[in-house]
Amino acid sequence: MIAEKTKMIIPDFRISPRVDQVGIEERASRVTKRSIKKESKMNGLLLALNMIDLTTLEGKDTDGKVKQLCYKAQHLHD
Question: What is the pLDDT of residue 3?
Fold first, then answer.
C-alpha cells in the first residue's frame, strides 16, 4: 500500500471575508421589529452578556485595562 501525499489548504487570514451589507441591514431591521416575549427576551439578553469578550490578548494591556475587564466581568448582569 502506497501512502498518498495530501495537499493541505491553509486559509489566508490576511484576506477579510466578504460581507453582505444589504443582507445584514435587512436582517437587523427584521430582528429589531420583532416582539420578543419577556422570558425569551431576558434569556437572549443574558446570552448576549455572557458572550462579551473579556479576554486580554495584547501584550501592551495596562493594569487599568485589566481592572476594567475584571470589573465588567463582575458586573455583567447589573
Answer: 56
Mapping DSSP onto H, E and C, the string for the chain reads CCCCCCCCCCCCCCCCCCCCHHHHHHHHHHHHHCCCCHHHHHHHHHHHHHCCCCCCCCCCCCHHHHHHHHHHHHCCCC
Domain ranges within the chain, ordered by starting residue: 38-78
Q: Please give the grid coordinates belonging to residue 45.
A: 439578553
Residue 60 to residues 55, 68, 71, Cα–Cα distance (Å): 13, 15, 19
What span, in angstroms and rounded, lies between the C-alpha atoms of 54 and 73?
A: 7
**pTM for this model (two decimals):** 0.34
